[in-house]
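Quick one:
INPUT:
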């Protein structure tokens, strides 16, 4: 289990440089194979934060702080609301149970919501029409609120954040650095909610896996930035997206 998670963190961090998918988007399903979904989201969030802090140490000085305030402050509010909703969904009763051989499958509101969001954000990366969606600068506050909300709820915030920040009038360095700062703000907001609400799920026992996965993610980012060209490989996108969609379907069915 540990090695599978580590390899995925390494490859996920490597592939994010040219696949379009974020590390959190790729790592959540793999954690989800071994842990309950809220724990998977929380553990992925820790790795995501540590990886972003590493990026922040390299790029933070280029951030546009006016945009961070206009977009990041609403993201914090949205992140808290989304994380609180995730915690609330856990308390809802099971919707349906069915047997797949000897395996009891449970369909819950939490699994359905996460599955739908995974499908939506996967299509945002794969379909040209959705991938090219952009919003005017006057919608920055709304964009921060929405991206933060979905970041807190499922960890999927990168696609929406990019759609709103792309027209914020930033150069390439400021755009990347501002996105990293905002991602850190959302992570700092949602993680305390996860760890206070999921105390009975055994989160504090998994620090070894988190440290190992984070180290693998750092290694993937370093090797990718040093040796790979930052281009988009369509086959990699579709293979990754296919994995995400299969996971989402199995999750919605209660198999996972």
């Amino acid at each position: 289990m540990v090695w599978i998670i580590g390899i995925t963190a390494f490859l996920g961090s490597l592939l994010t440089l040219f696949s379009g998918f974020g590390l959190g988007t790729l790592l959540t399903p793999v954690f989800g194979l071994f842990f309950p979904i809220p724990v998977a989201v929380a553990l992925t969030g820790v790795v995501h934060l540590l990886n972003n802090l590493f990026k922040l140490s390299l790029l933070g000085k280029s951030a546009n702080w006016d945009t961070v305030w206009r977009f990041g402050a609403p993201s914090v509010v949205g992140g808290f609301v989304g994380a609180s909703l995730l915690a609330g969904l856990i308390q809802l009763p099971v919707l349906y149970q069915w047997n797949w051989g000897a395996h009891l499958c449970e369909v819950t509101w939490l699994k359905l919501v996460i599955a739908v969001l995974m499908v939506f954000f996967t299509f945002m990366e794969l379909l040209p029409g959705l991938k090219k969606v952009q919003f005017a600068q006057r919608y920055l506050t709304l964009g921060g609120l929405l991206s933060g909300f979905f970041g807190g709820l499922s960890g999927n915030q990168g696609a929406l954040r990019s759609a709103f920040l792309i027209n914020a009038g930033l150069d390439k360095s400021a755009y990347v650095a501002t996105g990293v700062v905002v991602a850190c703000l959302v992570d700092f907001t949602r993680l305390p909610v996860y760890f206070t609400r999921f105390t009975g799920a055994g989160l504090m026992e998994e620090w070894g896996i988190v440290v190992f996965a984070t180290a693998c993610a750092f290694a993937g980012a370093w090797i990718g930035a040093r040796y790979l060209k930052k281009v988009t490989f369509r086959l990699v996108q579709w293979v990754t997206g296919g994995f995400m969609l299969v996971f989402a379907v199995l999750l919605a069915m209660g198999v996972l």
